[in-house]
Amino acid sequence: MTSVTAAGSSPGPAAPKSRKSVTGTRRTVAVLFLLPALVLLGALVVYPIGYSLIRSFYDQSGDSFAGFDNYQALFTDDGIRTALKNNIIWVVFAPTVATALGLIFAVLTERVRWGTAFKLVVFMPMAISMLAAGIIFRLVYDQDPDKGVANAVWVGVHDTFAESSAFPKAHPGRQSPLEPAGGGAFVTREPVRAGEAVVLPLVGVAPDLMPDGAKKAAPGRPEDGKITGTTWQDFTRGKGVGKLNGVDAAELGYAGMKIEAVKDGEVVASTTAAGDGTFSLPAAADGAQLRLPADNFKEPYNGLNWLGPSLVTPAIIGSYVWMWAGFAMVLIAAGLAGVPRELLEAARVDGATEWQVFRRVTVPLLAPVLAVVAVTLMINVLKVFDLVFIIAPGSSQDDANVLALELYRKGFASDQPGIASAIAVFLLLLVIPVMWFNVRRLRREVRR
């Protein structure tokens, strides 16, 4: 038996379909699987944000409604204003420098055989926690050149071009023929004469701190037509041992001490003491006063105070760049691998130099990747806390302060949870536009 459907008649109602997700899984089942994650998300993200927002409108005790007083403190409190200023410096410089270095490393290592090994070394700091990196750079920036690598290098370079003194603490002793001449120099009380042996005793330098070239001091021998003498450490270990203003066998000469003969304020002759402290000046020094210039006694260069008020923020940013330049390099190198080589070769065939190819072809093609890297680092530096807290000493922490650190200090050290909550909300408001820009860019890239 057959049934015929009349032409033009409408079909019957379709059977109801079960609602499924795009993967074919029933939505009810999908929701059940996502429920634990949603609960954790609400407990660890949504609830803290909501509670911080509400708490930011209450006073220190949390009992009285304070309105916008806590938010007003963000722009009137000196500590918070300093933190905000430093955050602006961080956002401007840290992502820019890290991204630029990552771009340079990615481009330069693209053609070398050992590029992979170099990238591995540059990326390796990413495996170190912020806490460990902070401890490392606290030691790197130590003021003592014998401990801090940064000052050891800086002092080494400085001393290469400007030799430091070996006798910073030397000065005349009792009944010395020398007297202060101003500016840290010393001069003989009386003019000297040719044929005389002059004594220039000094004290103040421990024998074990004398330079390696120092030898046992020898008394100067008079010479006709010349002025001779000795400059030495007039100190002998042992109570009552040695003769005042006299060269003793156990005393050391000031090797390398500069000596000038001065007449009417002008230097007419100069020399340098030998290892045993002896020196000789020509007849032109007859009737002059001998001067030991201040260069002999200047304090040795001790490098820069990297963690002082003026340099602490750039120093910490340097440690951040050390950690995150590898991250930028890896992402940019991945983007560079997708750049069409025929475009680069076409530019070279047209006569473009490597710099022109880099500036006008490579960088524009990498612009989306560079933007993603820079924006990601901006979000990261807005929340920076560990490095500043660990690296900056207590004396400079106020100068290196950032919003995340100030949040911690207000919430725990100062017991001002209302202001701390306001800072947290303010930080969230700062991060949201940057995140929105990043998400929008990523969606635009997916649509392409």
Automatic annotation (TrEMBL):
Residues spanning the membrane? 29-49, 88-108, 120-141, 320-340, 361-382, 419-439
Ranges where the record places region Disordered: 1-21, 213-232
Name the major location.
membrane
From which domain of life does this come? Bacteria
Q: Read off the InterPro entries from this record.
A: MetI-like, MetI-like_sf, UgpAE/MalFG_permease
Q: Which residue intervals define the domain ABC transmembrane type-1 in the entry?
A: 84-438
The UniProt entry, under Pfam families, shows: BPD_transp_1
- Biological process according to GO: transmembrane transport
Name its cellular compartments. Answer: Cell membrane
Secretion signal span: none
Which residues fall in a compositionally biased region of kind Low complexity? Answer: 1-16
Identify its membrane topology class: Multi-pass membrane protein
What's in the keyword line of the UniProt record? Cell membrane, Membrane, Transmembrane, Transmembrane helix, Transport
Cellular component terms per the entry's GO annotation? plasma membrane
PANTHER family the UniProt entry points to: BLL4140 PROTEIN, DIACETYLCHITOBIOSE UPTAKE SYSTEM PERMEASE PROTEIN DASB
Which protein family is it in?
Belongs to the binding-protein-dependent transport system permease family.
The protein's name in its UniProt record? ABC alpha-glucoside transporter, inner membrane subunit AglF
